[in-house]
Amino acid sequence: MDTLHQSQVQTPLIRIRHLQKNYGQFQALDDINLEVRRGEVIALIGPSGSGKSTLVRCINLLEEYDAGVIEVDGIRVANDGNLARVRAEVGMVFQQFNLFPHMSALRNVALAPVRVRGLSWADATARAEALLERVGLKEHQHKRPSQLSGGQQQRVAIARALAMKPELLLFDEPTSALDPEMVEEVLDVIQDIARTGVTLLIVTHEMSFARKVADRVVFMERGRIVEVAPPETFFQCPASERARAFIGTSSRAERRQSA
Ligand code: ADP
User: Fold this and answer.
1) pTM of this prediction?
2) Looking at ligand 1, which atom is closest to the CA of residue 55?
3) Which domains are assigned to the chain?
4) CA of 191 to the centre of ligand 1 (A)
5) Please, what are the averages of pLDDT over each run of 10 residues along the chain (259 residues)?
6) Neighbour-count burial for 201-229, b at 16+ CB within 10 Å, e otherwise
7) Rounded CA separation 110/124 (Å)
């Protein structure tokens, strides 16, 4: 392996140092430090309001942060003109699917590669067709979002993010807005993507999914990272009292849901 390639493989894809984010007087992120390797799947979990969404939004520059450093693939994520470079590397899937309502699924997926990457419509459409097939929506590709279920819309949103061939894909509670019967189909698609080597950072309340898919779990509380561990360690013997309490509450809730 040549030196350049070696250093690229060894450099973490995401590097966050002393990140701080305030909303007015309120400190939403407090000294966040995290490195994520290429190809890693990270489940970001923690109680509501702990700062998970704020963290992923800072990585994508949807929020400006107040102090610290974020680098993605060696590019400093900062609001000083490199927004386009950051967005080209980082895809995001939201709780609400944010599809264009007047466009077909196919058009929704093909649009950004044409507008941002300069692909021809023919190439972008071919890529979009393949991606929609991959997320199980080949036969629905000409439908508009309103003609699709929530789970199907979210799968279109995932295909749309993948169409930009991002190095990093951020998911902000991708199944929270879905009816329970549609959660599984979306999680299956994310699990499939996780196997392809794209780096994933997933904010989720689905503990069994986090356990199954993540390489590491990052547990947050009150704007801080409290614990980082492989899922088997985290779920079987969490180091912190806070994580123990959280896992207890979450697994009781999951049992109630599946009962
Ligand atoms: P989580 O994703 O873990 O539920 P968030 O990152 O959404 O948490 O929110 C962290 C904290 O920051 C919460 O207390 C929330 O109320 C607050 N917060 C989030 N967005 C804003 C905003 N735009 N203005 C003010 N406070 C906010």
Assistant:
1) 0.92
2) 6
3) 3-95+172-258 (3.40.50.300)
4) 27
5) 53 95 97 97 97 96 94 86 82 94 98 94 98 97 98 97 95 94 95 93 95 96 97 95 90 69
6) bbbbbbbebbeebbbbbbbbbebbbbbbb
7) 5
